[in-house]
Amino acid sequence: MSSLVADPAAPRVVPQAEPAVLSQVTPTTDQFKFLNNALNDLTGDVVIMGGYRGSILRSAQPPHRQLWIPVKVGLNLRKVDLEVGLKPEDEEKMHESIIPSGMLTHIGPIDISRRLIKKLRACENARNGKLRVWEYGYDWRLSPHLLSRKLISALENLPSNRKGTPLQDSGALIIAHSLGGLITRHVINQRPELVSGVLYAGVPQHCVNILGPLRNGDEVLLSSKVLTAQVNFTIRTSFALLPEDGSCFLDKTTKEAYPVNFFDANTWIENRLSPCVAAPLPPLSKTTSGLGSLVEAVSGGLPKLPLRATWKLQDAAEEKDGDSLDPIEPRMNGHGNAAIGKGPSSSSSWSVSTVCTLPRDEAIAYLRRTLAETLKFKQELVVRPELRETNAYPPIAVLYGKTVPTVYGAKVDGREGIKRADAYDRLAFASGDGVCLARAAMVPEGYETVPNGRISSDRGHVNLLGDLEGVGRAIKAIQAGRRRGIGLGKK
Predict the structure, then answer these.
(1) How many CA atoms lie within 13 A of 348 on its CB side?
(2) How far apart are the C-alpha atoms of 332 and 338, rounded to whole Å?
(3) What is the C-alpha to C-alpha distance for residues 179 and 447, in angstroms, rounded to an integer?
(4) Backbone phi, then psi, for 220, in 5-degree steps?
(5) Average pLDDT taken over every residue of the chain
(6) Which of 137, 223, 253, 270 could cross-link with 102 by S-S, CB 3.0 to 4.6 Å?
């Protein structure tokens, strides 16, 4: 089950406990020039969806207690079990125990999409009913194929996709963050007529950050018991972030690349990428211990606001050692903002976060099936020539960051170093938003963005949609593309 939540005062598609009511504000004319101009012409349905771990999850049973919201979970104020069973029917029946409930719009003071949603719902077109704003919540733990089918079903039921709607007014504008963009890209490759335009915000074609949590687990604020290595292993969408070209590992001395086939289960066993199939070998080097490590371990578990434009790249491919910046996205070294090469490393984090209780034969069978299904999903993201030639693809814009150091690989001690517990202790960085590399945020080959539809932002990944003017520029570019007939078929 997924949830489409409109204005808090309107009926909901799925009966749930009420989220916080978003107050209306009067738009200013100067502070958000591009966004306000875009909103003046924006009508129909707008769907906003979050990314990996970016939707609130609740118990399916009344009173629908919240199970996933990082502050409460991460401070150990609420115990949850986010593990998904290994069998296909386990995720098909997941709605019987856990349901999504809209986007995770903010984490404490960190804005993800709350300001944007407030602005959209407060504009004149929304107040007079010409614009309908929907938060789309989905269970980000389930297989991407299943999530694509659920999104198609939700879009089919929107007013703009009802039978008899004029072609120029049909389809929803989707604003998709991170993983939500991969699901959206799959949808428009199946049913492009359901979508009038897409804004991809920090949508990675791949993200090697996920390898850290799959081996070591990762912390949610102060808790290492929620997203353990085993839990991350059972989250189907974890594998959708793997690079198809096998890039990640490079020799720490010679810089030689060591490509691996991440979609072959034997690679996972041989290189010990998850303790669920093979535990990593001991580290080659000793890790630091003592007071310094303890202090960094505590501070590393606390959320930090993403860095702004205080870091400048001399070369887009230059390697950097830096901090992990995102409190909810997967972290390669698995432990908040502890400095790379100092303090607690992934190799010293064993215990609760790396214990595996899954039967190994069942885990391997699950891995083989999931990798095959995920690779098929990623192959289905490739542009379809027949849709491009018939002008079926909706206008596309991209909002991306390039001012925050972002992991693109791990520096290891030879190919054998991949198997070691300290494989992710030294990382290589390039330009991006802290999670998604700038180059990986572009649309795949064959797709086209509309003119003026590639907008760079100085925001970090988690609050990229907080760049309201960037969002406004992107929407304006999409609107201009639609007026020129993009996505409306051959003239």
Answers:
(1) 17
(2) 11
(3) 18
(4) -110, 100
(5) 84
(6) 137
